Amino acid sequence: MFRAYRIDRNAVPAAGKPADRFVEMDESELDDGDVLIRVGYSSVNHRDARVASGVEAIRRYPCVAGSDLAGWVVSSAAPRFRPGMAVLATGYELGSRHHGGYADYALVPGGWVFPVPEGMGCRDAMAIGSAGLAAAMAITRMEENGLRPERGPVLVSGASGGVGSLAIDMLAGRGYEVVALTGKPGQAEYLGMLGAARVLLRSEIELSVTSGLDKGVWAGAVDVLGGDVLAWMLAGIKPGGVVASLGNCESSALQAGVLPFASRGICLIGVDTVYAGFKAREVAWGRLASDLKPRHLDHIAREIAFEALPGTFGDFMNACARGRTIVRIAGQGGVKEET
């Protein structure tokens, strides 16, 4: 028997919201998979909080929550993995259609599993997690489309969140002039420590929806908010600039005209970390262990015990969370680490 944090719509019928609770499970209750993993760490993403809070529905109930995990292989039918290997899995259907990372054990399809990069432990892998993967994939795609430090400043929205914090750290480490866009004046010192050259407050900009062009200021932008913020960004991108859209924390709607694209030739890139292909993930994790390795991970991430997990979701829903939250699930628990 092992612990799991499971979402069960039928546990509490009030208001039709899913219920979350710690339960005891055994291996027979795990989903189909090739790799049995002793989970050491997971993390909390905004989507995890939405699911646990009943704001976002998932595809099956009950389901062990948690869209990220890292730990050690117990057994594997996939020849790439051997007992004791440190591995990670993020996205795909974890925590929505397939039991996720908030459990002592996970049984996962081999195609979803990656070795933890050399020089990185399971804890660091989860400090990065889906948020860092998204930021790395965005920077990679933007650079493939011409973004360079000499072209000008790069704007990052949702700057104090997980994706924003890691994107600022990575971009600044690559030599970019990074401007952090935030609604939280109290986070200016933190954002400057990560490498932001300037902090722009939401209260300082006019977010009226525009279908035209503003002065071209930004060579690029990383956006997790969507809606009016993304429309405002597009209007202020320099000719040949590039914007990466990673989320819709504020709105999934976009009211923007074609002029930034037709008159300035800008590029809008969508970044997906749920069903992204193996090659894109491999490239991103390779960079996360090398030229995009976060320099301030200890300041960006905080660690909580598994038992403290339910108390964290409200911080995300109330926009009070900063950086990354790592969940310490368990130690190796008798798994012999590969040497």
TrEMBL record:
Molecular function GO labels: acryloyl-CoA reductase (NADH) activity
SUPFAM superfamilies linked: GroES-like (SSF50129), NAD(P)-binding Rossmann-fold domains (SSF51735)
Swiss-Prot/TrEMBL keywords: Oxidoreductase
Enoyl reductase (ER) domain ranges (all copies): 19-327
Gene3D superfamilies, per the entry: Medium-chain alcohol dehydrogenases, catalytic domain, NAD(P)-binding Rossmann-like Domain
Enzyme Commission number, as recorded: 1.3.1.95
SMART domains linked to this entry: PKS_ER (SM00829)
Keyword set includes NADP: no
InterPro entries (UniProt xref): Acrylyl-CoA_reductase_AcuI, ADH-like_N, ER, GroES-like_sf, NAD(P)-bd_dom_sf, Zn-ADH-like_protein
Pfam (any one): ADH_N
PANTHER family according to UniProt: ACRYLYL-COA REDUCTASE ACUI-RELATED (PTHR43677:SF1), SHORT-CHAIN DEHYDROGENASE/REDUCTASE (PTHR43677)
Name the UniProt record assigns to this protein: Acryloyl-CoA reductase
Organism, scientific name: Uliginosibacterium paludis
